[in-house]
Amino acid sequence: MIIGGGPAGSSAAISLANNGLSVAVIEKRSFPRDVLCGEFLSHEVIFALRSFGLFDEFLALKPNRITNFRFIPENGSSAVHPLGFEGFALKRSLLDQLLLKKAVSAGATVVQPAEVVSLNRVNNIFEILCKTPNGVNSYTGDFVVGAYGRQSIIDKSLKRKFVSSRSGYSGIKYHVPKELLNNISRDEIQIFSSNGIYCGVNCVSESESTLCFLSDRNINQLDPKYALYELLERNPAFKALFFRDPIPALSKLPVYGTGNIYFGKRDVVENGIFMIGDAARVIAPLAGDGIGMAMESGILAARILTESKKIGLTAAATESLYKKEWKKLFSKRLRIALNLQRFALNSRGGNIGGQLIEHFPSLAEIMIRWTRR
Ligand SMILES: Cc1cc2nc3c(=O)[nH]c(=O)nc-3n(C[C@H](O)[C@H](O)[C@H](O)COP(=O)(O)OP(=O)(O)OC[C@H]3O[C@@H](n4cnc5c(N)ncnc54)[C@H](O)[C@@H]3O)c2cc1C
């Protein structure tokens, strides 16, 4: 049983069903649905889509191709750097629906909309209770995969240690119509930074760009929306991105946002539940690799659970194998991404970063490659 049908849950479901296991995905919301995300798709996402035989269907959704990266601190100094791989941008509503549909065609059962509200484990059998529009249903299974994203009521019921931590990081996303923007290079992802905030902008379709930012209230103490207005004041290149004062238009657009994004450590197996994607750990968004990591961790969990079933590993041995392989695959990436994020959120760091990149253009490429090792 997989709780959550985002990229992590769908990838695990596709892999488990392809390996011949019986699998159910329980997803809280009806699809298509939108989520907070910069919607930049890294090389890892494309690799996973190809491995699922989904690349042609993905291209049919007309994703925007991205080949370059530009970091623009307050002083406006910037240069364009090749990503060194082919990236894309596509609305999450479309990507997540593509993946969940594939899980169904691979043989997974999808229960949706259904919110898991409690979990019990008796003699190594799990019972899940979920709220649906028709009442409460229960499901049983011998493995549970937690793919419910960075925060859910399940964390509280499992008494996960990080639940009470206040990080101060908040994120917000808008889909901005192209009429609001000056010439934006379709092949670039642009990161604008200022004290305590950075904002990523990339075209996500023919008619819209995703504007997504992370704000650190420990530094700027502002409501995230106002932090964006401050970025407009402090970073002239960001202001110049817009045709006219964007505040009246932005205030009318739908907002996808969240407070308290916790980037610290979490246990990747809790009460026998195998956590994948953001439920296992949230990677700093600046690396643009959260979706890739969610999909990779889903594929990893599916491989280990399949092996465990095949050779009859004990629950304890399966858990320790997953913890070991998860750490090997992601620890270094997580650490580097967090350091890059600190660098971009700190105004001094941001400006130094801009100067460094100006004088050592290969540094940007190295930064991008580092996070992908
Ligand atoms: C500001 C910001 C910008 C980002 N930008 C990017 C980017 O540009 N590129 C990138 O690769 N990554 C980015 N990320 C990270 C990326 O969004 C996440 O890493 C990714 O969505 C994780 O996928 P997931 O499947 O683990 O979780 P999610 O995508 O969050 O999916 C979890 C699913 O579980 C469901 N669910 C939750 N609780 C329950 C429940 N109790 N019962 C049933 N279902 C439940 C939810 O409805 C949801 O559909 C960004 C993150 C932030 C915060």
Topology:
Blueprint: E1 2-3, H1 7-18, E2 24-26, E3 40-41, H2 43-51, H3 55-60, E4 64-72, E5 80-89, H4 92-106, E6 109-111, E7 115-122, E8 125-132, E9 135-141, E10 144-146, H5 153-157, E11 169-177, E12 188-194, E13 197-203, E14 208-216, H6 217-220, H7 224-234, H8 236-240, H9 247-250, E15 256-258, E16 269-270, E17 273-275, H10 290-311, H11 315-345, H12 347-359, H13 362-371
Parallel strand pairs: 1-2, 1-10, 2-6, 4-12, 10-17
Antiparallel strand pairs: 3-5, 4-5, 7-8, 8-9, 11-14, 11-15, 12-13, 13-14, 16-17
Q: What would your notes on this structure say?
A:
The protein is built from 13 helices and 17 strands. It is of the alpha/beta class and 373 residues long. The protein has a domain at 2-36 and 91-165 and 261-341: FAD/NAD(P)-binding domain. An 8-stranded mixed beta sheet has the order 3-5-4-12-13-14-11-15. A hairpin with a 7-residue loop joins strand 4 and strand 5. The chain binds flavin-adenine dinucleotide. Flavin-adenine dinucleotide is lined by residues 3-9, 26-29, 35-40, 42, 115-116, 147-149, 152-154, 171, 212, 214, 261, 277-279, 285, 288-292, 294.
